[in-house]
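Good morning C.,

I know you're traveling, so I'll keep this short. The sequence:
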Amino acid sequence: MAEKELHQVIISVGSNIDPHENISKSQVILSSETNYVARFVDCADVIETDPVGYKEQPNFLNTAYLVETTLELDGFNGYLKTVEDRMGRLRGPIKAGPRAIDLDIIVWDGELLEPDYHQFEYVSVPVDQILSSNQLSIR
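The tokens, ready to paste straight into the viewer:
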């Protein structure tokens, strides 16, 4: 059996519903489900940020994870959505509303996938820390 390619992924993580608990839980899930995530590599410091868009909600806690997976992009993104669902993420009428957990792929194998990276510090600050501490760059 041929060995599958290992993909390096940086995930933006955010929560403003029980954020300490949910961020910790998401890290445990991604670290323990080795059939999906081959290896949990690093976690950025957690920062507190004001909500963007819909302001009538608590501040967010944000971080970023560096993981490696053998899944392809669509499969891994689908997996992250199932983790959000299992953790109680509700997708309501307010897109920028409160959430238990938000897991978004920002960088896939060195390629920047999310233009929000440049616009929002809740994405760029943790992702930049991951890039710097792991001597990575994006194209």
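Safe travels,
E.
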